[in-house]
Structures are given as structure tokens and as C-alpha cells.
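Trying the structure run again after the queue cleared.
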Amino acid sequence: MLAATQFHPVINASKRGSFINVRNPAKVASIRFRYLGRRVVFSEGAKTLKLLSSIQKRDHSFVLNADGHASASILEEKGEETSEVSVLNLESNTFLSKWSPPRYLCRGLTVLILAGQVVVRTVKGKIHWKNTLQQLERVGPKSVGVCLLTAAFVGMAFTIQFAREFTRLGLNRSIGGVLALAFSRELSPVVTSIVVAGRIGSAFAAELGTMQVSEQTDTLRVLGANPVDYLVTPRVLASCIALPLLTLMCFTLGMASSAFLADSVYGISINIILDSAQRALRGWDIISAMIKSAVFGLIISIVSCAWGVTTMGGAKGVGESTTSAVVVSLVGIFIADFALSCCFFQGAGDTLKNCM
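Done. C-alpha cells:
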């Protein structure tokens, strides 16, 4: 055997089986391979042996001649065509191994998967009631204050706009009906959902994102608990139950603040506002508002939980997931509001005829 130290061969490889002659081991030799297409120079024998050992799919052997010179033969197992195909396959495998689907596509699929799992778990009755009640308290009672405050000022702002214009037209008795329809059909569910998305949706995404990056969800799986049952389903149910109730409360306070402002600033009696609202409203208006709120709650909770469980990148990833979850939730609320309004209120209506 030839020693690895101070061994500097000169190798000239042709297409098929060729011989490698080793001369002048004291000099730094150059190695030329036809399939490499370039000149490779090594100054150490260890690197030469490493290169020779890295040649795959070839048989090579070293023979010591009678004159003291060493020669090695390399026999290729496959031809040039096979080598080219192998290179192409290697390049394609490398490309596919480096490719990963876009982040938004993964999160979109996660939303659909989580929604399906929540529906299945709820139908089967696999609900963690303790966590559900805790989340219901967070979404409901702890969010009442900010929701009612927002609804009150939104109602007064719209009263200023409607009262000024309708008073000039002599349509004082129609102000209450217009405000009631605007609040019940659009303002109350949308405003309430926006407030909840900013307050609760961000909290859901941050909590689940922190649990994901700290591997707490994996700990739940090790302990035999399903993260969907323990973390996702309670939040979804709490949002879908609490939002319709919050919407109803915001509608009531919004109408009360509007009637108070119209009476104190524009001299329109509270009885006129309430009577006009009563004659304009239908039961379907309130029901549609609660249906919208339930759908908005589903969107907020599912999107926030999906963005949370797909969080990566430590604290920075948690912040990005929280911001993205709120933005996507708001966009989803507006799109769903348009779609539901088209389904519920198509065609010309004659509701305001009753309050003229």
C-alpha cells in the first residue's frame, strides 16, 4: 500500500479505463479529471486521497510496477450518458429539497384544517368546558367596557350627520328608523368585531404563538392532551357565543346615545326617535346582526389560532404573527360582511315607508 503522507500523484484520466502514473513524490502534483472540466491542485496527500475516495460508481486499484513506480487504474461502471442523467437527477432532487411552499399557503390550509377539526370535535362533544368558560369570560365580560364605549361614540357621531341633514329636509321622524337600520344591519356587528379582533384576536395569536415557539404544544401532545381540544376549540366557541351578545348590547347603547344626543342638541324628542326605530325594525334585522357577529367571531378565533400555531422565529415571529393575524381578521370581517349583506338584503326595500 502507498502511504498517504507526502504522496503527490499526477493523474490523467481519459474517458474510460485509464492508468494513473505516480512519479516524483517530492513535488506538488496536479490532478486533471476530464469529467471535472477544471484543474485541481492539492498540496497534501490527505486531500488527494479524500478526492479519490469521493469518486463514486468507479472501481479503482493501485499496482506497484517492477521499476518502482506506482500505477492505478480507474474503471467507470457507466457511460457518459448515464453520468449526465445522474447529474440532472441530482440537480432536480436538490431543487425540490430546497423548495418550500409559501407561508400564506400553509397558513390558509391551517385555517381550513383547524375549522374542520373544531367542527368535528364539537359535534363529538370533546369540549374542554373549563377552558371554554375561562375564554368566554375573557371575550365577553372583560370586553364589554371597550365595546360599549366605542358603540356609544359611533352612535353619537352618526346622529350628528343624520340629524343635520334630515332636519333641513323636514324628515325628523325618519331619523330614528335610519339609525336603527344602520346600527342593526352594519354598524353594531362590524364595530364590535373590530374591537374584539384588536383586543382578543391579538391575545389569541400571541398566546398560541408563544406556546408554539417554546414547544409547550409538543408537551401537551406528550402528556396525551390534544392541543385542538385544549387550546383552539374553547377559544372558537367562546368567540362565537360572546360576540352576538356583545353586538346586541352595543346596538342598545348606540341607539340610547343617539336618542340622547338628538334630544339634547337638535331638539328631537326621544319618543320620536324610539317610535321611528320601532316601526322601522324587523325581527330579521336583529337576527341577521347576531348571525353576522357569530360568523365574525369564527373568523377572528380561527385566524388568530391558526396564525399562532404556525409561528416560527422566537419573539420576533410572535410579534409578526400577532400583527398579521389582526390584519387578516379585519380583512376577513369586511369580506364576510359584504357577502352576508348580499345574501340577507338583496333587492329594493320599503322599510323606511313605515317611519315617514
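The chain has eleven helices and six strands. Worth checking whether this holds up in the mutant runs.
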